[in-house]
Amino acid sequence: NPRIITSRSDMDNGNSNTLMLAFKEDPALTEMMRLRVSSLQRSGQKRQDGERLLLPHEAVYRLDFHNQELSFSRWYFSLAAHGRVTITGICQHWTPDLTHLMTRQLLEPIGTFWRNAEDPEESPLKWLEADMQEFGERIAELAKVRKVMYFLFAFKDAAEAANLSCSVEFTLDK
Q1: DSSP string, 150-172
Q2: What per-residue confidence (pLDDT) applies to 93?
Q3: Which residues constitute the domain of residue 122?
Q4: Which of 47, 94, 166, 168 stands 20 to 30 A from 149 (CA)?
Q5: Which InterPro entries match (predicted)?
Q6: pTM (predicted TM-score)
Q7: pLDDT beyond 70 at 165
Q8: Residue 73 belongs to a domain
């Protein structure tokens, strides 16, 4: 089950057969995708059929898998203040320097967690538990054949990247 972490030591209390991976923003890739959008806008061209353009409230994040024999364990996320964050996995071995992101490369289900504006700031985050479980399991499956995986993080309803901490815990299969 996802849980809220309040300190780094909360994450370190796991046992030695677990691996915690933090989602890291990929600013260069995010910027490259933003440049694609602005280039299309400047030239008046349309996106390719099926192309997925980066929206203004989105950024590209990544997970690097140094160990690929993993089973999904749980999510760790915290969000200061209010808002909604959605995480969409990119399933293909996407080579952003060679190809544009296509909608068919996006994983389902997406991960979503949020705190409504009327909720107290210290209230627990809400999430779609079954979707988050399945999403975590899909990430673990893809880790077996990939060393890096990319994700689109969308920040909505006043959520900001600076207020987010998001990691996923795996158990080592070996």
Answers
A1: EEEEEEETT--GGGEEEEEEEEE
A2: 67
A3: 17-172
A4: 47
A5: Olfactory_marker, Olfactory_marker_sf
A6: 0.88
A7: yes
A8: yes
C-alpha–C-alpha distance, residues 17 and 170, integer Å: 9
| pLDDT for position 3 | 45
Q: Report phi then psi at 87, rounded to 5.
A: -120, 120
CB contact set of 133 (below 8 Å; sequence gap of 6+): 72
Residue 74 lies in a domain: yes
The structure tokens listed for 164 are 């987010």
Task: Judge contact between 96 and 33, C-beta under 8 A.
Answer: yes
- Phi, psi dihedrals of residue 61, rounded to the nearest 5°: -120, 170
Domain-located, residue 103: yes
Q: What is the DSSP string of the chain?
A: --B---SHHHHHTS-TTEEEEE-EE-HHHHHHHHHHHHHHHHHTPPPPTTB-PPPTTEEEEEEE-S---EEEEEEEEEESSSEEEEEEEB-S---TTTS--BGGGB-SSPEEEEE-TTS-TTSPPEE-HHHHHHHHHHHHHHHTT-SEEEEEEEEETT--GGGEEEEEEEEE--
19 and 68 Cβ atoms separated by less than 8 Å? no
Report the CATH number that the domain containing residue 101 is assigned in CATH: 2.60.120.390
* Total domain count, the chain: 1
